[in-house]
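WARN retry 2 of 3 for item q-0093 after timeout on previous attempt; input resubmitted unchanged.
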Amino acid sequence: MTATGLDAALAKMRSAGVEETAVRTFAHYYALLADGATGTIPEASIEPLDQVPELTGLAYDEDTQAAALGKVAIVKLNGGLGTGMGLTGPKSALQVREGVTFLDVIARQVLGLRERFGVALPLILMNSFRTREESLAILANYPDLAVDGLPLDFLQNAEPKLTQADLSPVDWPSNPDLEWCPPGHGDVYLALQSSGVLATLRDKGIRYIFLSNSDNLGATCDPMIAAWLLDNEVPYAAEVCVRTASDRKGGHLARRLADGRIILRDSAQVADGEDRYFQDNERHTTFHSNNLWIDVEALAALLAARDGVLGLPIIVNRKTVDPSDKASVAVIQVETAMGTAIELFEGAQALLVPRTRFRPVKTTNDLLVLRSDWFEVDERAHVVARGEGDEPLVTLDGHYTLVPDFDARFPTGAPSLLDCRALTVTGDVTFGAGVVCQGEVRVVAVRPAAVPDGEVLRGEVHLDDEPDPSREG
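OK item q-0093 returned
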């Protein structure tokens, strides 16, 4: 172990006022990293998870659901900036519809559930210091959202990025904020405890926390699941969905052969040369949605027994100190994933849910579909599909990767995708108002080009060629 690097990192954390349990947790992972831990899970050490109960098979009456929902609090992971999409503020402040952000939809979903079932149902964000102010400003538009005695948010912890060269805390005077990173969303458990939120939830009689990402608008708080958890006294449940070709790189649950525990294996934990097993959808038939339900009493007992250091599997994330500058100093971010906690809970279960509960926005491809007429936001603020079958597969090239560039090329909104199976755009193309895509559409432009208002696009469309029978005005 590089003792000098560890001492410097711990001193930096204490000087910044990082909570002491978080400091000790970082020291735990630093020791693993210095000893060469990779966090990989070999295929030979696991077997596929099968015989998973299904949400569609559950049946509880509305009174039972309401009673169960009254014992649930919602926690949304909201620390992400969406830098990969060119955002500088919270990703959840991105607009889903004109004037309506992710956080607006989430707040309205919660208020709708309260009205329907007559329960308090707290909503709490886990923010980072970079997302807190703007996120709370959006929630301030809903004065009835706060629950007496509970905050609307708590802060995740921070830790130093470490140089890959010697595992010392990186120094970046041009932007000192970039010297720090979150410890991964596995930090949520410790942050719940150190913020006092976990204790307050217990005092208020909350039994379960529903945890999910703020960019996944399909992750609504389902009272049917809450009723099932209470009825079966499940200490921890992870929602999984049926895997398709597009999910091959998503994490999956498996059963560890050594002790029979359910574990999570993410892409960063795949052993060298074993991607073919990880991406085998016939062997690992479901993927982890990152929607979790945790018994607060079981979590509190686990934190107490481990003195706050849960010891989740380590994830070694190799990056550059400035993510936008690949020539900047190579660093390591020591992270954990909240879903890996499943292996710590005796009796943890997986629950197979419809794919409608997994609608994250990770790229502008996802954003275009979400903003299109394929989806609508109903009276419960649920994002529901208007089209039939699988949603359109959208593939936009590098001109659209960043949200400002994306918005500039769809200045009047998304084209109609209701009758579209796939849309691929190659080239610098600006779409006019009222454009309709039908079937499988591929738009190609060698030079900057525009699709006129009201165009109907089918098949292969070369905007540099005229006339093109695939385009109809």
